Amino acid sequence: MAVTDSPAHARLMDGIYRHQRHIYDITRKFYLLGRDRLIDGLAVPEGGTVLELGCGTGRNLALAARRYPDAGFFGLDISRAMLETAHKRMHRERLGGRVRLAEADAAAFDATTIFGRRDFDRVFLSYALSMIPPWQAAIASALDHTAPGGALHIVDFGRQERLPGWFRAALRRWLAAFHVAPRDSLREVLESECEKRGARLSFDSPFRGYAIHAVITLPDSPR
Asked: What is the reported pTM?
């Protein structure tokens, strides 16, 4: 399994988003489909905890914090530039007391060291796996930090298998310019993780395969 060169990847992400972060949320709403559906489906238990890996500008965390006012929220990102924008958002929306942010690699982090807690009731990745080189490691790390009986939620680009070939090719060329790569073997990797952990997988490919929405629910007691 590949290992991230974290400093190099952090520099790459900062380079991409140093200026884009200021218009990120305005532009991405047109093609990062399914993010709000993921937030609505988190079904966070009262007093529960939620961790987002690759939290970017904090857009999703802010929406989720308002959607689930009794929960505690945590987010990490490898890009210092994006976290700067996320911190400003939390301050502006008066969520700083409920949302904690940290700079870390989603594929290799220790939540106990960063946040003072080992696991979370809900963990989610929203269009992050397609930008994380060792994305399989990020999935394993996310599940390692999901509490027994909790769930990992993922939304990202899909295979676009039910869309015209020309559209799929053009989309992938455009995404590649931003170092984004749909993970075509994602379902197989998730199924393998579920088998190892005795977990359940729900997997959907909405918008004619443009996106994927997956939920892994862990058993109440670890194997």
From this structure: 0.86
